[in-house]
Specification:
mainly beta, globular, about 15% helix, about 160 residues, four-stranded antiparallel sheet
Length: about 160
């Protein structure tokens, strides 16, 4: 008659199984999508609502239902906080805007991020819009060297 594994052996086997199972799930959920817009367009008020003049990513799907990090930043600018990076996630097919984030003109780092819940069953597109920073500013105040970047990520150290 065979002897059943000890409690310790059974616990180790279960831990290994759960670890490898979770690693596979984690790998399925890992994603990095990004886009850069270099041409200023629109108004400050358009930041989370208008896609006119924006750069867009390819259509993508997430591997798992859950929260993903949506980030916006500006870089290569003479006066970076005169430009705003507006990042918008669109649900493809319905053309509905899921969520948005901006680069926070008012903070000294000119970047922002938030969590957005996405479903694996849908296709999405990331839009990045370089907009003027404040209501009083227009695109003339946002220098041409400035780049607006947006990313959607999960499970990566850096994106892109």
């Amino acid at each position: 008659m065979r002897k059943a594994p000890s409690t310790f052996t059974a616990a180790v086997m279960l831990a290994v199984f759960l670890c490898f199972g979770n690693a596979q799930i984690f790998a399925q959920c890992t994603i990095c999508v990004s886009a850069v817009d270099q041409t200023c367009s629109g108004d400050f008020e358009d930041c989370g609502s208008s896609l006119a003049g924006c750069t867009q990513s390819s259509v993508f799907q997430v591997g798992c239902n859950g929260y993903y990090t949506l980030s916006a930043k500006v870089y290569s600018c003479i006066k970076s906080c005169n430009c705003n990076s507006c990042v918008i996630v669109e649900k493809v097919g319905s053309s509905s805007l899921v969520d948005s984030v901006s680069s926070n003109c008012s903070n000294q780092f000119c970047d922002g991020q938030k969590s957005v819940y996405l479903y694996a069953a849908y296709s999405y597109r990331l839009h990045v819009c370089k907009r003027p920073c404040d209501e009083g500013l227009d695109c003339d105040d946002c220098d041409s060297n400035c780049k607006a970047e947006g990313t959607l990520s999960y499970g990566v150290l850096s994106c892109p």
